[in-house]
User: Fold this.
Amino acid sequence: MAEKFSGNARDVFTPESFAGEVSLLDTTLRDGEQMPGVSLTPSDKVTIARALDAVGVSTVEAGSACTSDGEREAIARVASEGLDARVTSFARGVRADVDHALSCDVDGINLVVPASDRHIETKVGTTRDAAVERTQELVEYATDHGLWVEVLGEDGSRADPAFLERLLSAGLEAGADRICYCDTVGAATPDEVADVVARLEAHGPTGVHTHDDLGLGLANALAGVSAGADFVHATVGGVGERAGNVALEEVAVALDEGYGVETVTLAGLYELTRRVADVTGVGHPPNKAVCGANAFAHESGIHTDGTLKDTRMYEPYPPERVGRERRLVLGKHAGRAGVRAALSEHGVDASEADLDAVVSRVKELGDRGKRVTDADLLAIVEDVQGRTRDRTVELLDLSATSGAGVPTASVRLRIGDAERIAAGTGSGPVDAAVEAVREALDGVDFDLDSYHVDAITGGTDAVVTVEVDLSRGDRSVTVSASEADITRASVDAMVEGLDRLLAATDDDVPGEMPVASD
Assistant:
């Protein structure tokens, strides 16, 4: 078993120990792309890099230049963007990797060298002394060519601590700008991280790179900072191989809220996480901190009532801090205060008797395991009050084709007193149908904030439920629709949501819209 440092982590893991500046390195474009199923094009990488730069991430690791010509093209494009952030490339302990990085015109490299005996002897087939010597040679070569250099000890959390200290300090002596403690397989505990980082930091600027295999990624990152690290590697949403990396947005919020340490512009975090999720195709669990759909959602009647009286009652920080809004969700736990507030958001007044009836109907739906969407609530109150609603937008016809050619869809909508016919293409029939709806509603701005399949029944006659979140300006609506055909369910949900949004803002309802040809 590897020797452990004998320092007391409790001596450094205090709020006072977090004083000073901490910077974030984002490795979504490199370590995040190692997640199975994630493959980023050069344009994807540029899109994410710009979003990272916009919130003030200090360093963007754009990829591994040694991988392929295509990867080098992507890294070079990110490097040519003129970002405020430093742009780096991952480099193994071989000179060819440094040369590949230089060919991309990056600002620096993240030089990863083996630190544990498992990696030194089994993976690389070398010795400790040779690993130290090789590290020094490569650092000198890279710095001689004008590169900023960070030396990372791979599998550092399972390395002999004394050797890890020797290896990384040798990198600093050779001219490296900084070193990094790597919990490559997420095997460390916070006390271990704090002990080792405290010793490494005595030699020079030190960072931490943590994974979440034990669910300790964030705790370990904070432990490293408490012990003197001033640099944290992370990925947006925690994307990464196996259980993923520590999530950048969680590090930023935890440091700011918990210890008063500013790293990035918090108000841009939600938009950043959405952008990365869209590009990577990796969504967030609803209970994910900061970016999960339920992070600022309240259903319980007690919680809703308390939140309406004091917004901080059941929230550690305001959702606006990270660019989000609070949501009141209705279900079987809903109470009168929550239902009244939800109706008020849609400009609906209800008498005490009507309110009681609506609450009862909402609870009935919740007891059947159904989430009560905005459209459900409005339909209930209309029924309770005996009101009929004239539709503003109505789907009259839909057709979609998908096969060897480009997926295509066409829709016929009634908008106000006019009909619009439009077609669209996309990556699949659903995408094509959504584009057709957008085309038919030319001149009507709206955002599709989220789209997901909520449930599918079994059998060949399976029914799919699609739920969408739509918004226009400061108004939003959540609608679900169920059909045997996913394209039909998707369009039904979108049209219902748009009908609700447009009906709520009469001045935005299209008037005489010309009939378009298909």
Notes: DSSP finds 16 helices and 16 strands in the chain.
